[in-house]
């Protein structure tokens, strides 16, 4: 009973000529002519647990629920996969063997990452997407937590990423990793008042959680897909962090001005004058996380022949994190505070 093989065949679906298969850490994704089916792997990590059928059903339903806000009419529901003793099917007959998320397939050519790589992103499309995202943030209730709790949450995440990257099996340059960790935690302590202010102003909310260019479709209407469903805590963050992350990912593609447009539009409409040093901090923090996610590929057999690629990506993100650590300590506000101590 090979679920992946079954889902890879066009005849397994009602109307499709071909099926494209993509694999991630957590899922197999099957793209038919008009739809996308996502099969969650039975994996268990520190931050998620899909090991049981019940858990996969729960998080399939949760994925549909949390994505309704930013991608209405894209997430169509949850589909059962069944086995009748001889054949697998996506239907009502047979023993339940797994669950899938069913989505409407979006046009690849209108995803932000592809538009950027092709060098053609109409500014009105970007502004429309920025407006939708800003309205989402402004309509979302602030998270109920203290400034201290927020800072402890950040501290814990940074320490986890640092410890993961320092693992002997990766052979990464430890002084650089430790330096990034020290800088981030020193900034967090030195600017504790700034983080407390973000909480008291209601800027820490339940956001998207993984807002990258490949998760944004710009046409015919702006949509943001793949909102994190498996861990609510990973959606809890400062709006400034989410926008800084999006800008960082645009920078990596070579289009920093596109990400800056999102921040600029949000600043204007929300009247939230995000300090530049805070943006530098969040970019360094997220680059650190991305470095860990890149090198983590080496732990999976499916990526065993791609070590050079993922190690290179990891080292690039570590260099970016180091650069932004330097920038945040060179900010005017930081130097002014230093001179008063």
From TrEMBL:
Name of this protein: Aminoglycoside phosphotransferase domain-containing protein
Q: What is the lineage of its organism?
A: Bacteria, Pseudomonadati, Bacteroidota, Cytophagia, Cytophagales
Q: Which organism is it from?
A: Fulvivirga marina
Cross-referenced InterPro entries: Cell-binding_unc_protein (IPR052732), Kinase-like_dom_sf (IPR011009)
């Amino acid at each position: 009973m090979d679920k992946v093989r079954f889902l890879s065949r066009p005849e397994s679906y009602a109307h499709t000529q071909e099926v494209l298969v993509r694999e991630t850490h957590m899922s197999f994704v099957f793209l038919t002519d008009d739809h996308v089916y996502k099969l969650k792997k039975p994996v268990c990590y520190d931050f998620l647990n899909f090991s049981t059928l019940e858990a996969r059903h729960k998080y399939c339903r949760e994925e549909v629920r949390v994505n309704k806000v930013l991608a209405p009419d894209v997430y169509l529901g949850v589909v059962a996969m069944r086995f009748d003793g001889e054949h697998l099917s996506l239907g009502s007959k047979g023993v339940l063997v797994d669950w899938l998320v069913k989505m409407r397939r979006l046009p690849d050519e209108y995803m932000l990452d592809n538009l950027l790589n092709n060098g053609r992103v109409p500014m009105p499309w970007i502004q429309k997407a920025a407006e939708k995202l800003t309205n989402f943030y402004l309509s979302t209730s602030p998270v109920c937590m203290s400034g201290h709790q927020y800072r402890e949450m950040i501290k814990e995440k940074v320490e986890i990423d640092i410890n993961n990257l320092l693992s002997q099996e990766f052979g990464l340059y430890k002084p650089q990793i430790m330096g990034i960790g020290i800088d981030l935690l020193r900034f967090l302590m030195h600017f504790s008042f700034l983080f407390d202010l973000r909480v008291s102003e209601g800027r820490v909310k339940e956001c998207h959680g993984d807002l990258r260019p490949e998760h944004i479709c710009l046409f015919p209407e702006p949509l943001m897909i793949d909102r994190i469903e498996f861990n609510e805590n990973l959606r809890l963050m400062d709006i400034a962090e989410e926008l800084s992350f999006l800008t960082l990912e645009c920078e990596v593609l070579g289009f920093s001005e596109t990400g800056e447009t999102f921040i600029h539009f949000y600043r204007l409409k929300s009247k939230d004058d995000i300090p530049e040093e805070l943006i530098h901090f969040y970019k360094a923090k997220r680059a650190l996380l991305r470095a860990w996610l890149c090198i983590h590929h080496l732990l999976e057999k499916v990526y065993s022949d791609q070590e050079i690629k993922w190690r290179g990506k990891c080292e690039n993100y570590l260099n970016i994190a180091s650069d932004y650590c330097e920038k945040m300590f060179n900010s005017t506000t930081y130097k002014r505070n230093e001179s008063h101590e």
